[in-house]
């Protein structure tokens, strides 16, 4: 069994910018990923409208998520983190192809999609959110970053019991 996640463990890490969202006229949002707990994310978003801003007394809200699904409060997220991620059979199948050493994401995704006869981009994204895959950007042509992935150390290749996320 993995180490129990506590508030102290969450607070010992940091959140890093993992992307931005467009909420139209309401403004933008920021996606944050925890630096040491890959299953934990937060989204800072604008409130829905002036009534929500008045009611809550803030103009931005933080929404926590675990394994890509809403978790509610940080306390709820910590509870969810202490339950193993549930992988679907399709995710386990794709994870079985992901090597332990780094590979370029795009050629890998195309090769596996051809081999399996279906698109696998969503499964790769969900595996990343569930902490089974790691990714990083590496320098590429024209100074643009290229995504690389590998199987996370210790990632299970078994379908967990329970409801798939």
What does this structure look like?
The chain has two domains: 7-81, no CATH class; 89-151. The protein is 30% helix and 30% strand. The strands form two sheets. A five-stranded antiparallel beta sheet has the order 1-2-3-4-5, covered by helices on one side. Strand 2 and strand 3 (40-46) form a beta hairpin. The chain is globular, with a radius of gyration of 18 Å. The two termini are 20 Å apart. The chain has six helices and eight strands. The chain has helices spanning 7-12, 50-56, 74-81, 89-95, 105-116, 121-129, and strands spanning 15-22, 28-34, 40-46, 60-66, 69-72, 103-104, 133-139, 145-151. By secondary structure, it is α+β, with helices and mostly antiparallel strands. Helix 4 (89-95) crosses helix 6 (121-129).
| Spatial ordering of strands, largest sheet | 1-2-3-4-5
Overall mean pLDDT? 86
Number of strands: 8
Give me the strand/helix succession. HEEEHEEHHEHHEE
Domain module count? 2
Q: First CA to last CA: what distance?
A: 20 Å
Unreliable stretches covering 5 or more consecutive residues? 161-165
Structural class: alpha+beta
Helix content: 25-40%
* Tally of separate helices: 6
* Largest sheet properties: 5 strands, antiparallel
Inertia-based shape? globular
Q: Taking Cα atoms only, what radius of gyration do you get, to the nearest Å?
A: 18 Å
> Which range does the strand content fall in?
25-35%
Descriptive labels:
alpha+beta, five-stranded antiparallel beta sheet, three-stranded antiparallel beta sheet, 6 helices, disordered C terminus
């Amino acid at each position: 069994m993995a180490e129990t996640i506590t508030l102290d463990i969450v607070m010992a890490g940091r959140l890093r910018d993992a992307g931005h969202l467009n909420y139209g006229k309401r403004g933008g949002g920021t996606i944050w990923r925890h630096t040491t707990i890959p299953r934990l994310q937060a989204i800072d978003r604008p409130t829905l409208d002036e009534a929500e801003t008045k009611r809550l007394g803030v103009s931005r809200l933080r929404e926590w998520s675990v394994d890509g699904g809403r978790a509610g409060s940080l306390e709820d997220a910590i509870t969810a983190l202490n339950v193993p991620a549930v992988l679907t059979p399709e995710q386990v199948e794709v994870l079985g192809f992901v090597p332990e050493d780094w590979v370029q994401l795009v050629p890998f995704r195309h090769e596996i999609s051809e081999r399996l006869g279906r698109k696998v981009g969503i499964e790769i994204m969900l595996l990343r959110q569930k902490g089974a895959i790691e990714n990083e950007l590496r320098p590429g042509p024209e100074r643009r970053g290229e995504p690389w992935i590998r199987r996370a150390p210790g990632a299970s290749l078994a379908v967990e019991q329970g409801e798939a996320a």
